[in-house]
TrEMBL record, chain A:
Pfam families: CoA_trans. Keywords: Transferase. Gene3D superfamilies: Glutaconate Coenzyme A-transferase. One of its GO terms (molecular function) is CoA-transferase activity. Belongs to the 3-oxoacid CoA-transferase subunit B family. Transmembrane segments: none annotated. SMART domains: CoA_trans. The keyword Transferase applies. NCBIfam families: pcaJ_scoB_fam. This is 3-oxoacid CoA-transferase subunit B. PROSITE patterns: COA_TRANSF_2. It comes from the Bacteria.
Amino acid sequence: MSWTRMQMAERLAREFEDGWIVNLGVGMPTLIADVPLGDREVVFHSENGVIGYGPVTPPGQEDLHLVNAGGQNVTLLPGAAIVHHADSFALIRGGRMDVTVMGAYEAAANGDFANWKVKGAKGGGIGGAMDLAASAKRVFLMLEHRTRDGSPRLLPRCTLPITARGVVTLVATDLGLFAPTGEGFAVRDLAPGVTLDEVRAATACPVTE
Amino acid sequence: MAERDGDGSMTRRNKVVADFDAAVAGIPDGATIAFGGFAQPGVPFNLIAALGRQGAKRLTCIANTTGGAHKPRMPDIGMLVENGQVAKVVCSFTAATRASDMLPFTPYYERGEVEAEIVPQGTLAERLRAAGAGIPAFYTPTAVGTELAEGRETRVINGREVLLEYALPVDVALLRAHQADEAGNLRFRRSQRNFAPLMAMAAKTVIVEVEEPILPAGAIDPDDVHTPGILVQRLVAIPPPPHGIWPVRREVPAR
């Protein structure tokens, strides 16, 4: 057994505290906007200047003037505000993001991570990732524990060009929730039925309880 | 090309042009052009298509992206690249974030037919803001410790390593707004605003395609203006489809 992407999103969302400003990146993290948070109120920020958006719009009801970071048409919640890009990134660089949740190719024991350039490529896709990674109070990552060919994505050091140095707070994978320790990763939670040995076999550095 | 209005008049200059071809007339070879837009909202689809017809060459194109891998494909900088008009792009994406996607631009870049400078999105916004604000350079924590900072000047300020970034001045900004009045004041709708106010500030000439019929001066309350008309030289109203190009729903790719 392992977590689905939605379960990974739900597990990370459990870490959010009431009142947080939360930035969600492209890809898997967008699922978090659909997770019920009970009596905790968080405000979702999107790098394109949307503050206070809600779930993705049902088909047929899209406002084509309104997208989240992933280009999905989203809804606005009461109290939402919109600013231009320089102000949006001023909020990011200015330290207003309690957490940013991003997808990644690799996460390293030293807190580095890589999510903008794949092996052998000349180009890359940075978007707002480097700004967010450098300046958010916390960086949460969501990624599959292994690549499609079974190689570990949790490594002693990144092999791909990094997005930022030493910033990762938590990593959610299909196998569990982990925190980098410098030497390896500490288990914060395991998906149902997943054993510590299974995680160790799938990880390229020490995994501690 | 028109210069910025400097005489204090608000409507004496007629900024409204008849069509998209008139709007992009005179953009010279070698110009540095900034294109508004983030995903679809704010992309000046009609002006991009007109620039393709106009044919200016050796352009430097500044935008968040050269155009996505989405379907249906809309007018994008990638098309100007395919048209042989572009020397260099300055973008926060030169390849797709999903390894399985391919931006139309990427093969041209891989083959060395066009130059690219990849810039983190917030740094791109701030470099434009700085150019418009008369700030020649600034330091930012973004990209410190990454490949992008290799060989470049960093300093430690207040205990934190920060990277020197230069302002990014622009010759021409091509934008899309929701409303404009004859004085050139612009109002954007929802996330259409994105980079547009910054590009307008950074540019010597600002050309805008406008979704609603162009309003008489004063019809936009001064408190609601996002970009003041003193920055704007040319306005063109977007006709309904099929003559005007409007955003469409994207096909959702299977994950």
